[in-house]
Amino acid sequence: AERNLSENSIRAYLADLESLLLHINQLGVSEFAQLELNHIRSWLANLSTKGAARSSITRRVVSIRAFTYWGARSGWLSRDIGKDLIAPKPERSLPDVLDIESAALAIKALEVRAQEEESASSLRDLALVEVLYGSGIRISELVGLDLGDIDRQRSTIKVMGKGSKERIVPIGQPALTAVDNWINKARAELVSQSSGSALFIGSRGKRIDQRVARSVVYQAMEAIGSDKKLGPHTLRHSAATHLLEGGADLRTVQEILGHSSLATTQIYTHVSQERIKKAYEQAHPRA
Asked: Residues in domain Tyr recombinase (predicted)?
């Protein structure tokens, strides 16, 4: 709470501590006061041999550093043993990104389904995917949207991001049209007493949860015919990459995505460079 962490971050920190406790118990350590740096290193090495990604190990190092700092400050540990832990540099693998045609194909498939079925869920699903791709917001931000967060005059949505940081994100006309169709033609069919002001609601009328929203996106992505399981983050990555390729500057994309660090946004410049290189190799006779 002190650091204004999201629920997901808190859950991850607790899971990390639980994992460490299980490991040190197996080593015969039953009191916090007995905890030493080599116990923590043993735990991290064990995770690594079990196939934990470097980025996952890095996150766990950050978790344990915070824990040992608190432990020393609270008197549970004689000193802050975690401050000597060095986090491995995370591997920056390039994210999966759709080309513009594939993104259009996924949305077209949803449009066709909405026309054929004329069901409340098909109009909702189309609006949901349009908003994700049209704005580049996170799935957690999407499910938190309320009816009043849409500003049609300015073509923007108000989003509550990580760490309860609010930001205004531009959104295109196709997404706004899809949202209005959902609100005006279908939302009333699913509304219940528990709907409140939630923009997107599930089949029982409650605010749609992340699991259901993710499954909507996974289904929509099947239209592309990829071997990979493509989800909400693929749409976010694609939106960012298409913005940069369309001429948007890095700072603007950072603001839209809600990244606290420009370095996080810079990975999309690498994605664009890779895509340009690939297109060149495929198209140029002297490549």
From this structure: 93-281
